[in-house]
Write the structure tokens for this entry.
Amino acid sequence: MKKKNIIVVGLQWGDEGKGKIVDLLAKDVDIIARYQGGNNAGHTVVAGDLSLVFRLIPSGILNEEKICLLGNGVVIDPVVLFEELDNLKKINIKIKDRFFVSNKCHIIMPYHKRLDIARERLRGAGMIGTTGRGIGPTYEDKVARLGIRAIDLLDRQLFYDKIVLSLKEKNYLFKNVLGENVFDPDELIEDYINYGKKLKEYLVDTSRFIAERLDSGSNLMLEGAQGTFLDVDHGTYPYVTSSNTLAGGAFAGAGLGPTRIDEVIGITKAYTTRVGEGYFPTELKGGTGSIIRDKGEEFGSVTGRPRRCGWFDANLIREAKYLNGVTGMIITKLDVLSGLPEISICTGYMFRGSKIHQLPASFSECCEVKPLYEEMPGWEGDISGIRSFKDLPVNSQKYILRLEELTGIPVNIVSLGKERNQTLILNDVFCKSPAVL
Ligand code: GDP
Ligand code: IMO
Ligand code: MG
């Protein structure tokens, strides 16, 4: 039987539990690749006593035999990459010959980080709430054709000329608009040439690498970062990140064609969270929102910021289904909802006297929508030790089945805790076992 190639994508505003699930699914693939974003991501993997948060390195890296790649669509802060690699080496995770970086990846430079933070300050109350990691300015430079690619770090003169060009406008901005110190190319060059020397052994043409491996029978999992509604085109613009987070972004971001992919697996929490600014129709301010935040430990894995919490929004997930071409869904953090007397699911919105099922395109109109809920009875007790769907409290089973019905997406996996074994497989993603729902 042909081995499946899959894309794993977040269906909400990020932090859906992609790290846990990618680590879990990695045992059934040969290659795991990131295709967009950078170290704005924080993907948590818990394996026994280990709890690691991956910013750049694919979450499959703990699965010893697997190849992990950073595709060309990823933006790389070398400071963070080498920190992450060093931490893995300290715990004896083998990196050599199993971790590669696209030579076309764009590099996050110190001026990108300063620009990100200064711009947020300039926006004041209208800030995006970025992670401050320089992600947006690096993608801007890429599109403006001013970016530094990984391969450029290997050529001193070319690299130097590129920084000089990039800083012409930026230093003007820093000095005259943003009130920041300017950058001197001569002070940047040595550190980054040294990063280039260290990076060299990992650099390959990852798209060709993937093509050759797939042709010889290997299979691939593409690991999305952020989530559907942080997508720069289809998300809640302007409160989005600066890349295409959708499954479609994987093709350009890893350099392969859509015909290679068999399944798109969407991950959603059993409720909703969001970090940073932007509208969030089902947000619960205080009360139940705080209960969910405390129980679900909903604090950003990159910035430590409290995540905003709210009810599951079936409208968003239905939209995420067609935006990504989702074929199967994984629901995480069901355990967090235990003990709530009633659980609400958003099934539509009231907007200017009519019921609608999709957020309006205009930002100001979005602020007017009021969520419409259907209530379901909750369940009691700790469910994190349960290992079979039929042993779950009946009301939690009904909740999962209702989410499946409202979204029209079959559920593959339900997650009940951080650990690998706190996972119920209902329909194996790789079709190795029969459905049990
Ligand atoms: P990602 O960015 O999508 O990889 O998600 P994060 O790692 O930023 O955030 C998800 C958090 O939830 C992490 O702390 C995970 O360890 C944790 N987590 C994942 N699945 C479950 C689950 O089913 N139940 C609970 N209680 N925690 C989970
Ligand atoms: P993972 O992969 C949640 C949010 C930021 C901000 C917006 C833009 O762990 O799910 P950026 O720094 O990207 O320009 O910030 O996007 N954001 C995330 N929110 N999870 C993430 O990643 C995020 N990456 C960016 O909070 O609102
Ligand atoms: Mg995260």
Q: What stands out?
A: Residues 10, 13-15, 40-43, 128-131, 133, 135-136, 225-227, 230, 239, 241-242, 275-276 surround 6-O-phosphoryl inosine monophosphate (ligand 2) (CB under 6 Å).
